[in-house]
Structures are given as structure tokens and as C-alpha cells.
Amino acid sequence: MRRREERWFDEAAGPLVRPYAVTRGRTRSDVYGLDLLTLVVAVPSGNGNAHLQPEHAQIVRLCQYPLSVAEVSARVDLPLAVVKVLLGDLIEQRQLIFRSAAPSSEVPEKHVLQAVLDGIRKL
Fold it and tell me: Which among 76, 77, 92, 75 is positioned nearest to 34, based on CA atoms?
């Protein structure tokens, strides 16, 4: 048994702290509507992360530059549902800010993108 990234880890059994224990039994955090493409980034703070749980602190350290929810989940090696709960906690504590992807209805139309591309080519 060894310590890996702030969690106890057994090579044969995997993480010894189960996901439901990390979230204290909470399974949903739909308050902020986080999806796979939502970007999250840490808010600079002078008070440090000493008061955060290890998983929360790990996420704040990772998010020093914008990452998608999917990237955070992959890097902390926790299920997406668990990461969404933890991200919701951090947003509520004002440790993170987030930006959802633009809805497909707000994506520029093809002719606008073509005009931009043509303008770039003329440069």
C-alpha cells in the first residue's frame, strides 16, 4: 500500500477511498449544469488550500489554467459524476470559476466562418 496523489492506493485493489466516500454520499451536482466541455479554472487566492480535502486541493492545483470537466476527471482518476460533485463544491466555495461551451445555436454560420478564413488567406 502506498500513497498516490493524496489518496491511499493499493496496487492490486485500486483506490482505498471509494468515490461515494469522497463526495460524502452525494451523487449529483446539477446546480451549475456542468458538462464534459465546461471549462473550469482556479481563482487565485492568497489563503492557500490548506482547508480543502485532498481531492479538492488536487483539482485546484490542476486548474491553474482552464481545463474541461472531462480533462479534470481523467487527470484525477475519478469518475465523472464524482468530479462534477467536487467541482460544484469548489465553485460554491469560490475556488473555481467555470464557463460552459456555447450552445450550438450560437455558433457562427458557415458563411461567416468562410469570410473570416478568406480574410486570413488574403493576409
Answer: 92
pLDDT class of 70 with cuts at 50, 70, 90: very high
List the strands of the sheet with 7-10, edge to edge: 2-4, 7-10, 14-15
Coil/strand/helix, residue 101: coil
Q: Can you state the angle between helices 80-92 and 69-76, rounded to 10 degrees?
A: 110
Give the residue from 57, 60, 82 showing the smallest Cα distance to 7.
57
Contact assessment for residue 67 and residue 97, using Cβ atoms and an 8 Å cutoff: no
**Within 13 Å, how many C-alpha atoms sit on residue 88's CB side?**
17
Tell me, yes or no, if the pTM score tops 0.70.
no
Share of the chain above pLDDT 70, in %: 67
Domain ranges across the chain? 19-122
- Measure the CA–CA gap between 23 and 82, rounded to whole angstroms: 7
For 19-122, CATH number? 1.10.10
pLDDT tens digits along 24-38 = 556 566 678 888 889
